[in-house]
Amino acid sequence: MSDAARHEALIDALGAELTPVRRLLPPWRRALGWLAVVAVIAVALFVRYGAGTMLHRWEAAPDLGVAACGAVLTAITGALASFMLAVPGRSVKWAWLPVPSAVLWIGASGLGCLRAHIPGMPVLNMHAANDCLVFIITFSIPLSGLLIWLLRRACPLRPVLTAVTVGLASAAASASLLEICHNFDAAATDLFMHAVAVAIVIGANALMGGRLLSKV
Amino acid sequence: MAAAQAGDQRAYTRVLNDSVALIRAVARRQGVAVDALDDVVQETLLTVHRVRHTFDPSRSYDAWLSAIAARRAIDLLRSHGRREHREVHDEFAMDTHADREDASTGTLRQQEAERLRKAIETLPPGQREAVEQLGLKERSLAEAAERTGRNTGALKVNLHRALKTLRDRLHGES
Fold this sequence. Notes:
The complex is a heterodimer.
Chain A: H1 3-16, H2 27-49, H3 52-60, H4 62-85, H5 99-111, H6 126-151, H7 159-180, H8 188-214
Chain B: H1 2-5, H2 9-29, H3 37-50, H4 61-86, H5 91-96, H6 103-121, H7 125-136, H8 141-148, H9 152-173
Helix pairs in contact in B: 2-3, 2-4, 3-4, 6-9, 7-9
């Protein structure tokens, strides 16, 4: 069979089994769906812990508030970038979208190390720092899983890059949620643990999420 | 393509036929050899079919198609690269130690047949049926369609997919 005939045969066969399809929603609307789930968890945590501790920390140390805003923005832009990258033909430059907010998040958190201790708040010990690590990873697993599941309906042609933005979005969302119930002053050990947790989440996503997405 | 998403077969076959030239051009630009361009066309057409719901009619069809074609071209280049890396090109060895029929050849063939049989068994039912009817029993499309109750189009697609799956699996193992 010549190549032209081979293509024609395949096209005829594909035409014969054509069924109407439901078009994918625009990336920003799909991102909103995932962010809505994060928002529901945030509301549940606010109901349980209240906003008092969080606001007290931010008042005493505005840089923590800036870092939290950076984390929230990173979750939003990371999710949007993931859904954009999952649609063929969209520019790869979308991967840069979460970078400025991630710099703000990580930069402001890092500045916390240089700041004086917040009066009246316990300084984090190693044991509690481990809790932060566990919290971020525990929340990131279902959030990444959900994001990957949603992305699999699209067609991520750059699976590993998409998985990295997935990891960044879920780690940022988990760090934002942690902020609500985090009743410690941010010390160097704490920030180090946050950094480790974020690195683990992004690394695990790049390794496993990339594979899951490349099967699409 | 927007009409195809709604189920218009004529619009679909037309847009796919018109896409072949662009797919070839994109693959060529990625550095795919001329004799492998048609493999990229086939793989791209199958991907387009699978992910046709991701096309947004308010955006460029060419950009959407080019992105898929470029990806499939890169996949092909990578798989060729891997295969060439594994295969040994040693003409001297070929001359001095040419294959001879010996006891192990028969066993080897048997093992290969066994591997193929097992791989066919693990195919999804529709694909397995297509291979059995069209490939192993050498029935015509019409005969196979009559026996299985499927239309010929579905059988062709199933056979194509089955061959791709088998190729991937057997290459992956060797």
